[in-house]
Amino acid sequence: MKKIISMLISSVMILSLCGCRGKVEEKPVDITEEVGEDKIINLQMREADTLDPLLTMRKSVRDALLTVYEPLFNIDETFTPVPNLAQSYAFNENATVMTLRVKEGVLWHNGQPFSADDVVYTINRIKENPDSSYYLNLESVDRVEKLSAYEVVFYLKEPDAFLVHSLYFPIMRTDTPVDAMIGTGPFMLKEMDGKSISLVKNGAWHMGKVHSDGVKFVYMRTGAMAQEAFSSGKIHAVTKEILDTENFAIKESHTRHIYPDGLFEFIGFNSKKGIFSDALLRIAASNAIDRAALGNIYGDGIPSGFPVMPGSGAFTPTYEMSEYNLDYAKEVIFSSGWMDLDGNGIIEKIIDNEWTSLSFELLVADTDPLRSAAAEAVKENLHGAGFVVNIRRVDAQTYHERIKEGDYDAFLGAFYCADPYDTSQILASDGNLAFEAFTSSEIDFALSNLFGATTSDKASVAFSKLQALYIAYQPIAGLVFRTTYVVTSPYVEGEVKPYPYSPYANVGLWALSGIDEKEE
């Protein structure tokens, strides 16, 4: 299992244009109601690099297109898969084959029926395009085959009982031109004018009634433009990535809807050399960190010592791994022979006939101000346990090169999970993000058992065993899961429920009220 994208320092935008061949008989769903401008929800997006929902590299474009296209499963705030176009699924005994049944009676926006053919087509397109942002979601999939009109069989390269947690990518209709924007979602294409994309509600949406008449995505070249448009009421919702949180004040009349975004912050240890070759010092360092305080630094970050979101549907933690326990950290350090040997205030230990101080360099990339601030807090925390921490800030290229070469004591980094339960890339001997700085056959075996767990009971047992080993070896020190949010204006009513991979997941249930009233 290697579905985790490497440590995130900066985003690289790749412009990808893709056209699909094939003729489609157009039978648009009938729109019977007159659409009034006061019932249109206005949202923002960057100008599209491509309208292909599988190939765009711009997050705001992906978010917008997920109001037109739909996934097999949504992933909710507890990282539990919620069936959307999928109806049910079943694994064989060793989790190497999965049979998925999709919903019947779902229509594409052109009136054609949705079927297993469309799922096979979409998955093959992703697997054939390494530049797709969803490519790693399907890394465990060897091939897919249509079993019947509404059944698809996934043949896997290795056991992957959590495959459904990766099936949140948009499904496209077989051989349909990208610019046609034909999906199954709550909104369908009305027109594009080079400045915006106007969508109207899908009167035949399989999930029920759409509460607003349409959605209009307005192109915003800069965050400042989006902030001004939102402040003046011209657009009705913005995402955190657009806001300049230092200079933009969220009004009391606005509502912030917070949700996890899958980005996990951690400290990576070099367990092959230096002081962190001693597992006890890794354990001590982890216990000396005040994760709750770090959560505040990152802004609503969710403390977590383990690389699975607390409260996740498939994971019930056996041990508390986020508690700040400075006394225990000191006890571990002193019980392993470290002390102030010469009274100079520095904790030391004689190793190979040499005095070695309890000090290390913490490598940090200079590209993220929040991570840099977190490094200072970590330094202060560890100082309280007796560590001497020297923060070394470097550019992104140097950061990656030094980690790859093993030229570090510890580093502060993050990774983004394509599958919220796939911890193998950071913990497995052949895939960890510390570039093989830590290996353990026991953890490898526990990971194998976890991804072969085809029932909730088996998964719970496997998670418990993996967590116990994680605590014993402490290969990394987990810190927090970052969160993000959608801010809505007072005009938006109804339940706004963003999900980790789709901030507008339930936009079909949003509505507008009081739009004719001016904000003060």
Question: How would you characterize this protein structure?
Answer:
By secondary structure, this protein is of the alpha+beta class. It folds into two domains: 266 residues, D-Maltodextrin-Binding Protein, domain 2 (3-Layer(aba) Sandwich); 224 residues, Dipeptide-binding Protein, Domain 3 (Dipeptide-binding Protein, domain 3, Roll), CATH 3.10.105.10. The chain has eleven helices and 22 strands. The strands form six sheets. Strands 1, 12, 13, 14, 17, 18, 19 and 20 form an eight-stranded mixed beta sheet that branches. A four-stranded mixed beta sheet has the order 2-11-10-9, covered by helices on one side. It has a four-stranded antiparallel beta sheet with strand order 5-6-8-7, covered by helices on one side. Strand 3 and strand 4 form a beta hairpin. Helix 4 packs antiparallel against helix 6. About 6% of the residues have low confidence.
List its salient traits.
single chain, 520 residues, alpha+beta, D-Maltodextrin-Binding Protein, domain 2, Dipeptide-binding Protein, domain 3, 2 domains, 8-stranded mixed sheet, 4-stranded mixed sheet, 22 strands, globular
How far is the first residue's CA from the last residue's CA?
A: 53 Å
> How many domains, in number, for the residues?
2
Q: What's the level 1 CATH class of the largest domain?
A: Alpha Beta
Q: Report the CATH architecture of the largest domain.
A: 3-Layer(aba) Sandwich
What is the oligomer described by this structure?
single chain
Overall geometric form? globular
CATH topology of the largest domain: D-Maltodextrin-Binding Protein, domain 2
- Rg: 25 Å
Total helix count? 11
CATH homologous superfamily (4th level) name of the largest domain: Periplasmic binding protein-like II
Mean pLDDT: 86
Q: Structural class, from helix and strand content?
A: alpha+beta
How many runs of DSSP E, i.e. beta strands? 22
Helical amount: 10-25%
Largest sheet features: 8 strands, mixed
Please report which band the strand proportion falls in: under 5%, 5-15%, 15-25%, 25-35%, 35-45% or over 45%.
15-25%
Low-confidence stretches: 4-36
